[in-house]
Amino acid sequence: MGFLLSKSMDANFKQQQEFMLHNARLQMERQMLMQNQMRERQMAMQIAWSREFLKYFGTFFTVAAVGLTAGAIKRKKPALLAPIIPLGFVFAFQMDSAYGDLIYRMRGEAESIMMSEHNRLDLPHGTPTFDSIEKARRAKSSLAAFLEK
């Protein structure tokens, strides 16, 4: 009798382990999908911000370039055209950021860094562990309890 009960409990235990493993896998997949969707939304917002900034900066650049060119011609001072050069670089960068392939070049460079210069990505004191987080949490909670007294 005990043997049959033990065998049945072992089977139930294995089924329960498989069920828990399956649920943990589903939870991990959902979490990864959610994090990826959040990353995509943040990147979309950043690109949208670049495009909106480009509209304002483009207008400023156009007005400044026309005004400086007119002033340089009117006063016969070509030095007045000098600010157009750095403003042009900023405008070109913003254009590349908003509509160009800057993001693809950045991704390629990031992949290269991850492959060949991985040591640059190490965190100070290494990757946080459960023990290091618990130690910090305990220190903070005991400090908060001490301060409340």
Automatic annotation (TrEMBL):
Coiled coil: none
Cellular-component GO terms for this entry: plasma membrane
Pfam family of the protein (one): DUF2368
Keyword Transmembrane helix: yes
Official protein name in the record: Plasminogen receptor, C-terminal lysine transmembrane protein
GO aspect biological process, one term: positive regulation of plasminogen activation
Segments crossing the lipid bilayer: 53-73, 79-99
PANTHER family: PLASMINOGEN RECEPTOR (KT)
Keywords attached to this entry: Membrane, Transmembrane, Transmembrane helix
Origin species: Labrus bergylta (ballan wrasse)
